Amino acid sequence: MQRRRLLVELIVMVRVILPLHLRTLAQVDGEVELPVAGEPTQRTILDALEARYPMLRGTVRDYSTQQRRAFLRFFACNEDVSHQSPDEPLPSPVASGIEPFMIVGAIAGG
């Protein structure tokens, strides 16, 4: 007799704060709440964001490389996580929805 394993994937709700230009493009006010399957990482949050708001595809990450766009930064618990691996688990306050995952537009010029 073959045993079957039942796999249950945990869905968590995460909060995401977008910069004004991306909120305008996505036609949302304030922060968004997204269901994320499994442990929240930058990649899983951005996958969920682009699935819910397809007009944001290519604006946060490059289409082909899936790398963060140059003038955007990612913050979790007020720490810059932009250069961490996109598959690294985010801090538990972000994963539990207590703290938001923030996408911030950088400013350049001189």
From TrEMBL:
Tree of life domain: Bacteria
Protein name in UniProt: MoaD/ThiS family protein
Taxonomic source organism: Lacipirellula limnantheis
InterPro entries membership: Beta-grasp_dom_sf
